[in-house]
């Protein structure tokens, strides 16, 4: 059983006996008035490559007054497309996904839709994942364990213009930002957005024809990007690229 599958089995999407819905209903109503200027619900898009996670979160969130799930996406590439189509207030973003990971999807969404806020929801508590999402522009980070009450708190705080991090990863954040060279582990910091996309696809074993088709570019352009990526990262073969991608969290063995 993979880490992701184990995590899914341990997600508690909702516990009616412990959640104070009156408090949540009142608080979200107050946020809606200031956030949207009217009493429209906070619109949310859920991005996760596991159907069970998306379905469970959607069911639970739609039971809370003041929240409406307007879209779901199974990978980062769809998330970028749907962000333009549905213009959600908040995106709940997984990190390890095929095609385009949550870090790069977050970066692209924040760049193009500055009013949209991202909350990371992941099985990963390691520093490289946390820092990557924060550098990309995420305003919150939670783990996929006992998350529903924390997720509601995160939506409340992030919609109010604050940030929210679950206790398990706060220590990583504090340590990282104390260090002046905290971004040294972000091996792809010198890569362009297009290079980061191709870096992930190559590390997932996608061939040149597939990448060219997905990104609507020529095979010659793909090969040129691959050459530049290897040069920037100091590698000479795909195996080394894949090793770097796994170590830095750009892709995952769980995909």
Major sheet characteristics: 6 strands, parallel
Average of the residue pLDDT scores: 82
CATH class of the largest domain: Alpha Beta
Low-pLDDT windows of residues: 1-24, 180-185
Level-2 CATH architecture of the largest domain: 3-Layer(aba) Sandwich
Q: Which bin fits the share of residues in helices?
A: 40-55%
**Overall 3D shape:** globular
Name of the CATH superfamily of the largest domain: Response regulator
Listing every helix as H and every strand as E from the N terminus to the C terminus, the arrangement reads: HHEHEHEHEHEHEHHHHH
Beta strand count: 6
Question: What is the beta-strand fraction?
Answer: 5-15%
Radius of gyration: 19 Å
Secondary structural class = alpha/beta
CATH topology of the largest domain: Rossmann fold
Question: What is the terminal-to-terminal distance?
Answer: 13 Å
Q: Order of strands side by side in the largest beta sheet?
A: 2-1-3-4-5-6
How many domains, as an integer? 2
**Number of DSSP helical runs:** 12
Task: List key phrases describing it.
255 residues; 6-stranded parallel β-sheet; 2 domains; 12 helices; Rossmann fold; disordered N terminus
Describe this structure in words.
The protein is an alpha/beta fold and 255 residues long. The chain is built from 12 helices and 6 strands. It folds into 2 domains: 3-178, Rossmann fold, CATH 3.40.50.2300; 187-248, Arc Repressor Mutant, subunit A, CATH 1.10.10.10. It has helices spanning 3-9, 21-36, 51-61, 76-86, 102-112, 127-136, 148-159, 167-178, 193-203, 208-215, 219-233, 238-248; strands at 42-47, 67-73, 90-93, 117-122, 140-143, 164-165. A 6-stranded parallel sheet has the order 2-1-3-4-5-6, with helices on both faces. The longest helix has 16 residues, at 21-36. The radius of gyration is 19 Å and the shape is globular.
